[in-house]
Amino acid sequence: MDLKKTFGETIKKLREDKNMTLREVAELLCIDTSMLGKIEKNNRKPTKAFIDKFSRLFKVNDKDLTITFLSDTVAYQVLDEEDYATEVLKVAEKKVKYLKTQKNS
């Protein structure tokens, strides 16, 4: 799985690799076809349940799909801050570590 691609691109590629239509996949996931299309176009965020169902349907690691989704969320947040994006990501990594220690205290 190419973790550089967006979540939507990843979902679309997995679906197309199996030669399945939006409608077929949407039915198997019990979601609306238009919702799946919006997810593939990165216009709608998936739920955790959707990520889990999709990973089972296409037999891919749910950890990779979750990382792809969460990294999209972070990337879109800092996308317009070109001058600071890399520094923000470095600080965020440190903050995650700090917050984990605080949570475990």
- What do we call the CATH homologous superfamily? lambda repressor-like DNA-binding domains
Query: Could you tell me the mean pLDDT?
Result: 91
CATH class: Mainly Alpha
Low-confidence stretches: none
Helical fraction equals over 70%
Taken together, the total number of domains comes to: 1
Shape: elongated
Largest sheet: none
Q: Report the order of strands and helices.
A: HHHHHH
Which structural class best describes the helix and strand composition? mainly alpha
SS elements, strand count: 0
* Beta-strand content bin: under 5%
Distance between the termini: 36 Å
- Contiguous helical run count: 6
CATH topology: 434 Repressor (Amino-terminal Domain)
CA radius of gyration is 16 Å
The CATH architecture classification is: Orthogonal Bundle
Key features of this structure:
105 residues, mainly alpha, 434 Repressor (Amino-terminal Domain), 6 helices, elongated
Give the topology, please.
Blueprint: H1 7-17, H2 22-29, H3 33-40, H4 48-58, H5 62-78, H6 85-103
Report what the structure shows:
With 105 residues, the chain is mainly alpha-helical. It has one domain: Orthogonal Bundle (434 Repressor (Amino-terminal Domain)), CATH 1.10.260.40. It is built from six helices and no strands. It has helices at 7-17, 22-29, 33-40, 48-58, 62-78, 85-103. Helix 2 (22-29) crosses helix 3 (33-40). The mean pLDDT is 91.
